[in-house]
Write a structure and sequence with these properties.
Blueprint: H1 4-24, H2 28-53, H3 57-79, H4 81-86, H5 91-120, H6 124-148
Helix pairs in contact: 1-2, 2-3, 2-5, 2-6, 3-6, 5-6
Length: 162
Amino acid sequence: MNGWLPAAALLLVAGFAPTVWGAASGPVRRRVLAQNLATPAGCMVMLLLAQGYARPSYVDLALVLAVLGPAGTLVYARLLAGELAERPARGRSARVLDRAMTPLVVTAVPLVVLPLCVATGPGRAMVKLLVIGALLIGGNVVSTRALSGRPATGEKGGAAGG
């Protein structure tokens, strides 16, 4: 057994336990945020397993998940927009979760992707890993902004009324 497999097991426990708890309980906002956090956790586990088992096809699964995960979150945000607007994030823990999502992903993804790039070496596989990392970070930023109600353009407030 190599070091990639225990890292994948640790990330599986540390990444999916909070997301399963968040998706199974609590208000709608926490459930959708938990689903949003499951995407990077699942991708990173797939990348570690790909390296641990020497299966490049797992990297392709992580790439598909990195593309479709944020899109799924945006669909949920659109379908549940009324309910998310009716019940804004209340309490300190909800606001902390909203604010901590992006820094958590921006920190965790490079901690997994960069060692995998070093282990893989230069080539197409390394480019694919970097693309997956960029998709995970960018997708999380966009979908977290959509869930929190903050505009992506940097404007303060919502849409202009007329």
